[in-house]
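Bumping my old thread because nobody answered last time. Still need a sequence for this structure:
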């Protein structure tokens, strides 16, 4: 019989443990690890075999050698469980990954629209005048001849009407209804419907017989201003124009009034804006509201006075955005419009 020593037994147990750990580490799947169990920890495993050799040791050596064997077995058992856990979670991860359902769907982002350049310009003008204490009014684009001309001191046959040729609409007596040629009729409507003091701007579309070119369109936009209060003077008009000029165009811009003629204002003036480089830009017409216009609109000229002004919005939009042909604003080519 071979003379077994506790040291030999313990050394062998250590070697078998190391071998078992290596086998477990090398196993690549849960099934492989589980299949290795009988061979590593089963009754017939080499480690279990060592236990049977304990009997051959001297009785005093048995407890220590027995403990060493138990420790070796529980070490392998522990490594077995750890490796099993590791591989189980790895396999679970792979499975989840493989079974993952992609429920997302890719859509082209929606095309975001934008306001037309003229609308943007109109809104900015409204903002500037609102900040100056004005409210915004509107009037119809299909107007009566009376609001567009008569109430504004253009009697039938007045030569100033020649500048305002437009389309007449088949409604009411012939010649009584037309596409408005300016926003000035909104002055009349505001004075008829509201009581002074009035601080109002009225932007909107206007129509005139005109051949389309780079700077003219038969359809265009104006903004009208009307102020009626006590003791309003030409100085207030000049001040309002100047305040507007710096607010809209910025510091470094200034304005001037030049004598002119409009039937519905007395005195009348054109107003120009001076750029910082010294050049002048003609903007629009203005003046003190004619007493007979006040009267016909139900405003007492003895008590109230006021000024009015009107100018084109489209030209401002062209200037601001560097557009050099007005027609580009109307052809509605998205590639052009989306630049602004
Ligand atoms: N309505 C005039 C035009 O289109 C512009 C104008 C001139 C408006 C003088 C006014 C004004 O309010 O006072 O030619």
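Sorry it took so long. Here it is:
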């Amino acid at each position: 019989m071979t003379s077994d020593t506790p040291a030999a037994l313990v050394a062998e147990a250590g070697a078998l443990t190391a071998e078992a750990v290596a086998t477990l580490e090398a196993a690549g799947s849960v099934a492989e690890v589980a299949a290795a169990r009988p061979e590593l920890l089963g009754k017939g495993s080499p480690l279990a075999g060592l236990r049977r050799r304990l009997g051959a040791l001297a009785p005093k050596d048995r407890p220590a050698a027995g403990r060493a064997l138990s420790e070796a077995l529980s070490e392998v058992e522990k490594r077995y469980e750890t490796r099993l856990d590791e591989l189980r979670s790895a396999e679970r991860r792979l499975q989840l990954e493989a079974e993952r359902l992609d429920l997302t769907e890719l859509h082209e982002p929606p095309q975001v629209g934008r306001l037309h350049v003229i609308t943007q310009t109109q809104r900015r003008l409204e903002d500037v005048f609102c900040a100056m204490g004005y409210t915004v009014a509107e009037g119809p684009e299909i107007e009566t001849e009376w609001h567009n001309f008569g109430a504004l001191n253009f009697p039938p046959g007045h030569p100033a009407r020649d500048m305002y040729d437009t389309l007449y609409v088949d409604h009411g007596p012939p010649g009584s209804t037309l596409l408005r040629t300016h926003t000035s009729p909104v002055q009349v409507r505001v004075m008829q419907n509201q009581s002074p003091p009035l601080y109002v701007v009225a932007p909107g579309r206007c129509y005139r017989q005109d051949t389309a070119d780079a700077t003219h369109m038969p359809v265009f936009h104006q903004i009208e201003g009307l102020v009626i209060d006590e003791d309003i003077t030409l100085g207030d008009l000049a001040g309002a124009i100047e305040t507007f000029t710096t607010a809209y165009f910025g510091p470094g811009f200034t304005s001037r009034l030049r004598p002119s003629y409009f039937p519905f204002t007395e005195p009348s003036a054109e107003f120009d804006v001076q750029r910082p480089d010294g050049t002048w830009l003609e903007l629009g017409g203005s003046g003190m509201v004619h007493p007979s216009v006040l009267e016909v609109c139900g405003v007492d000229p003895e008590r109230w006075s006021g000024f009015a002004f009107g100018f084109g919005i489209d030209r401002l939009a062209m200037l601001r955005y560097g557009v050099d042909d007005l027609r580009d604003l109307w052809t509605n080519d998205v590639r052009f419009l989306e630049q602004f």
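The first helix runs from residue 6 to 26. Let me know if any region looks off to you.
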